[in-house]
Structure formats: C-alpha cells, structure tokens
Amino acid sequence: MRNGTKLLALLGVLALLAVACGDEETPSGGSGGDSGEITVTAEDFAFSETEISLEPGAEVELTLVNRDDAEHSFTSDDLGVEVEAEGGEEASTTLTAPDEDGTFEFHCEYHPDQMTGTVVVGEGGSSGGSKDSGDSEDLDY
C-alpha cells in the first residue's frame, strides 16, 4: 500500500506542476503571443506599453483603455490601424501583423510627440515605413 500512496502523491505533485507551468501568456500585456488580445492603457499622457511583440501574421484584438480625461488614440500608419477612445472610456479593434518580421511605430493621433511606441513583429528589423531617421535601427543590445 505504501507504493500506491507514493504514486498517488507523485501524481498530485506532477498535476500541480503542470498547472503552475502552464501557458502564461498575458492577454493585457505588451506581447500578443497566442492570447489573441492586447490591452494598451493611456494614462498621464503615456502608453502603458511602448513595445508590443507579435508573431508574423498574428491577428489580435487590441483594446485601448483611456484613463485620462482627454481623447487618445492608438494609431499605426504603417500597420493601417487606428482606434480612438474618449476620456474614461475604452475601444477595441482588430490588429493583424504583417507576415514578415519588422518593427512598426504607433502613436496617439492627438499627442504624437508624447505618446509613442513600437510593434515588433517576429524578430523585428526595419519596416521601411518607419518615421525614424534610421540612425539607431541596427543597434543590438
């Protein structure tokens, strides 16, 4: 009977480990992963996420949560996406990543100098549609 008890205890531990080590994609974080959802918060005239990582071809629901009184947007001319939210509200849209790696800028249409970020698809790299001068595109950290 002792072997049966040990086996049962071992199976219980393995089950707990499987649950603890399961898929931990963060649906509201800056990584799209396999979750299919991304939440970006606008607060104090800044985005909560300034870098969002997606796999090539990923399709995600992007939700902009606006915690300010002023209207904000999540706009990427390079990706052809824009979602606007009035102060204190939220709005969603679908964001489809390109099929190839690249780095794409996003900004708030109303506050483009204060609120900016990038969407990194796959391994990133040059997107060709970037507004950056290119001086820092090839830096590896």
Produce the secondary structure layout:
Layout: H1 2-20, E1 37-43, E2 46-47, E3 51-54, E4 59-66, E5 72-76, E6 81-85, E7 90-96, E8 102-107, E9 116-121
Parallel strand pairs: 1-4, 3-9
Antiparallel strand pairs: 1-2, 4-7, 5-6, 8-9
Structure description:
The chain has a domain at 26-121: Immunoglobulin-like, CATH 2.60.40. The strands form 3 sheets. Strands 2-1-4-7 form a 4-stranded mixed sheet, with no helix packed on it. A 3-stranded mixed sheet has the order 3-9-8, with no helix packed on it. It has a two-stranded antiparallel sheet with strand order 5-6. The radius of gyration is 20 Å and the shape is globular. It has one helix at 2-20; strands at 37-43, 46-47, 51-54, 59-66, 72-76, 81-85, 90-96, 102-107, 116-121. The protein is mainly beta. It has 1 helix and 9 strands.
Major sheet: arrangement of strands: 2-1-4-7
CATH superfamily of the domain at 26-121: Cupredoxins -  blue copper proteins
Distance between the termini: 57 Å
Rg from C-alpha positions?
20 Å
CATH architecture of the domain at 26-121: Sandwich
Q: Which fold does the CATH topology of the domain at 26-121 refer to?
A: Immunoglobulin-like
Outline: globular
Task: Give the helix proportion (percent range).
Answer: 10-25%
